[in-house]
Amino acid sequence: DAKTTQPTSMDCAEGRAANLPCNHSTISGNEYVYWYRQIHSQGPQYIIHGLKNNETNEMASLIITEDRKSSTLILPHATLRDTAVYYCIVKFNKFYFGSGTKLNVKP
Amino acid sequence: EAQVTQNPRYLITVTGKKLTVTCSQNMNHEYMSWYRQDPGLGLRQIYYSMNVEVTDKGDVPEGYKVSRKEKRNFPLILESPSPNQTSLYFCASSPRSRVDTQYFGPGTRLTVL
Q: What is the DSSP pairing of strand A9-13 with strand A61-64?
């Protein structure tokens, strides 16, 4: 399974867009990219996933590069409640939650 | 309300005393799974079940048992808990067609003394 690399932490001002990057340079053609988040000690929450096309839902947008080696999760208008650890996951057979990115949304 | 529930939410016990953590979902999901979360190690899958009476080991199954006699319930059993099983445990469920978009429970914080 492909491994992912994410920054350990990021800050974002409330009301601004939060752009969370993820590198997955060893991704193979049939592996999807998933994003989850975990608000302090709560159960992880599914956000969005995609294969090669950009995706958007009510929570976020997912931009996947053409070579599929990286992706960006975009929260268009971050709020304080979006402060959480965000996990980028690439999975074919097995789901692996790594360390994620701690997003701090500040007033 | 669609949800995954776990009980208890907090438990402190002693080494060797058998315990069960219950997990129940009301979404008629086929797939259910147990994870443990430890600092620096992320979430690791313990066991999963694709449907009633079908269970499989995840990455860290040692010291745990599960059963899936009903679709809605997936209890996690620790026959003889040890301190290294002190952790935060999550149950999750999803439709069989979308096993990767899982709904997680609120977590059970277990301490084994």
A: unpaired
